[in-house]
Amino acid sequence: MRLALGVSYNGQAYDGWQSQPSGRTVQDHLEAALGRFAARPITTVCAGRTDAGVHGLMQVVHLDPPVQREDFSWVRGTNTFLPPDIAVQWAKPVPDAFHARNSARGRRYAYVLLESPVRPSVDAGRVGWVFRALDGDAMREAASYLEGEHDFTSFRASSCQSPTPVKTLEAVRISRRGAYWRFEFQANAFLHHMIRNLMGCLVYVGQGLQPPQWMREVLDARSRDAAAPTFSPDGLYFLGPLYEPHWGLPDRVPAYDWLP
């Protein structure tokens, strides 16, 4: 039987999720730890790759285990060999038909942004930062132009490998708690750097550099040159994929409800 794992990580020290020759990725560390625990080489497939500096609260991976262990043993045993900023949160057996990426019907991200005249210190690397005041109503109006099925070429990195720029952005939610803004995005899929490029434009609108209607113009332009610069990866969190209930997998890690 196939096994699914929920993995959380702080992405500051890593070159993103996907394995690279440097060995400095989350996938490299996870597979090395799994291999040490199982005493066999193990490869994983993830639900969604994240870039350098981006965090994961519930990355989901699947693997075909070469040995049989109790679910809790996969969690505790693997975590024994992982660095302190990566942790397996849960392990669940799934049918062989399950695929961490292809079975996902959607994905969710959150961006946490600090509005402060002084740069972050304790939160450095874990939140984005702006020193100018933001207008929440203006940003929400701008975000409303993005919801639905659109060609998101204007928000796509040149290195994006997606076969199509057409995606369905199901919801954008913007809220504030004290000095922290939270932007939550849910879509059927995302393009490379799509959220960071959306954030750049939302911040432009929030700071009054552009009116909310400008977002519609950027979207219609279908050109990366029409949009704002790519925003920092620091405050970006992969909240996890969305699966149909019959797979029986968690859709959230309660330990991270503190996230602003």
Question: Can I get a quick summary?
Answer:
It is built from five helices and ten strands.
Can you describe what's shown?
This protein has five helices and ten strands; from the N terminus they run βαββαβββαβββααβ. α1 crosses α2 and α3 packs across α4. It has helices spanning 26-38, 71-80, 136-144, 194-206, 214-221, and strands at 2-9, 45-46, 55-63, 86-94, 106-115, 128-130, 148-151, 166-177, 180-187, 236-242. It is 20% helix and 28% strand. The model has no long low-confidence stretch (mean pLDDT 94). It has 260 residues and is an alpha+beta fold. The longest helix is centred in the N-terminal third of the chain and has 13 residues, at 26-38. Strands 1, 2, 3, 4, 5, 6, 7, 8, 9 and 10 form a ten-stranded mixed β-sheet that branches.
The tally of strands reads 10
Q: Tell me the Rg in angstroms.
A: 19 Å
Structural class by sheet pairing and helices: alpha+beta
Biggest sheet architecture: 10 strands, mixed
Helix and strand pattern: EHEEHEEEHEEEHHE
How many angstroms separate the termini? 37 Å
Fraction of residues in helices? 10-25%
- The rough form would be described as globular
Which descriptors apply to this entry?
10 strands, 260 residues, 10-stranded mixed β-sheet, alpha+beta, 5 helices, single chain, 20% helix
